[in-house]
Amino acid sequence: MKILMIIPSLSKKWGGTTSSLKNFYYGLNKINNVKCSVLATYTQKEYPEIDENILNDSNFKLFEAKKEGWRYSKELNSFLNKNLENFDLVWIHTIWTSIDFFVSKYSKKFKKPYTITPHGMLDPIAFQRKGLKKKIYWSLIEKNIFYNCSAIHAITNKEYSDINKLSKQNKFVIPNGLQNEEFLNKNYTSLNSIAFIGRFHEIKALDLLLKSLVNIKNLNLIIAGAGEKDYEEYIYNLVKELKLESRVIFKGFANAKIKKEIFEKSLFLVLPSHTEGLSMVGLEAIMNSTPVLTTEKCNFNEVQEYNAGMVMKNNHPETISKYINMMLDSDLKKMSKNAHNLALERFSIDSVSKKIYKEFEKIINETSKPK
């Protein structure tokens, strides 16, 4: 089975979508008779942010895009026109770009099935951002791209429900996955920090977490991430305004090594986002034996089911303060063990890759049947 995976960017700063694709790439390539190739675009600004391992892997092909949003690349389209017929299935990891438009066009030309993973981009809150433009684009273009796909991959049941309101195409639910890690046995009595890891973007609600910290004494916050400059400046100024300089530690952009160090030093991770598909950093936390405090909008209710964290009904600062205190009063060592068990049982990349392989096998077999 030859699978062509396509994503707008492999920059580390693209966060969860990039991590999700890479994990599936390595997981699927472990399966006999599966060969995955990856196409991505990049801007000059993004190129230095791409892992050297990717740049040195011949199965990853990168094409320059002049505009960050639309991601148009003449060279990418030329590659599709010349090579797409050599693949059994195309797996698109984006919407709202020229990439999914041209992939659907060439897939139709060569009669190849394609699957779309929207990665939470059709969540109602995400859809409302630039809402008018998206509604027009959906009606004129994106709706047809979904109509012609062989299947839509949702990563949570909530996402399945959101997509179902817009498209009745065949759908399946399989979560993101992670490489297995050993249990991290932390000395909780020596820790006095919680963590936030993520993009600096208003949708991540880091400002609300900072405001909640004012009401809690003797607790530090480790922040790792990067993003929009205006929002970064807003966050730095907010820390000063709230007089939290001595309690907030900025780590900058976090690679895998820095994330692991943060998990080792943190009581738990906080995900206060206004919306998430299925947070990759949340999965990384539980795989590293770190409980998670999150919101209902983050679609990670499994942490509550396994007693591996807590789920807040909203992300108001008062609510976050209340739940941080509840977490601090809990048996975090037990939660840590539960978090690791949850990761191994539900989100092991080997397990989820086998599930998605079976879905792709069904799609390819169905496509190859005589009409």
Word description of this protein:
The chain folds into two domains: 2-177 and 348-368, Rossmann fold (3-Layer(aba) Sandwich), CATH 3.40.50; 188-346, Rossmann fold (3-Layer(aba) Sandwich), CATH 3.40.50.2000. The strands form three sheets. The chain has a seven-stranded parallel beta sheet, with helices on both faces. A three-stranded parallel beta sheet has the order 8-9-10, sandwiched between helices. Helix 1 packs across helix 15 (349-368), helix 8 (206-213) crosses helix 13 and helix 11 packs across helix 14 (332-346). The protein is globular and about 65 Å long. It has helices spanning 16-29, 52-55, 74-83, 98-109, 124-128, 131-147, 157-164, 206-213, 229-241, 256-265, 280-287, 302-305, 317-328, 332-346, 349-368, and strands at residues 2-7, 35-42, 60-64, 89-92, 114-116, 151-154, 171-173, 193-197, 220-224, 248-250, 269-271, 292-295, 309-312. 44% of the residues are buried. It has 15 helices and 13 strands. It has 371 residues and is an alpha/beta fold.
Count up the helices: 15
Average pLDDT score: 93
Helix proportion range = 40-55%
Question: Which value, in Å, is the CA radius of gyration?
Answer: 21 Å
Domain unit count: 2
Low-confidence stretches: none
CATH architecture of the largest domain: 3-Layer(aba) Sandwich
Question: What sequence of helices (H) and strands (E) makes up the elements?
Answer: EHEHEHEHEHHEHEEHEHEHEHEHEHHH
CATH secondary-structure class of the largest domain: Alpha Beta
> What order do the strands of the largest sheet run in, or round the barrel if closed?
3-2-1-4-5-6-7
CATH superfamily of the largest domain: Glycogen Phosphorylase B
The N- to C-terminal Cα distance equals 21 Å
| Number of E-state strands | 13
Instruction: Describe the global form.
Output: globular
Largest sheet: 7 strands, parallel
Question: What class do helices, strands and sheet pairing give?
Answer: alpha/beta
The CATH topology of the largest domain is Rossmann fold
- Proportion of β residues? 15-25%
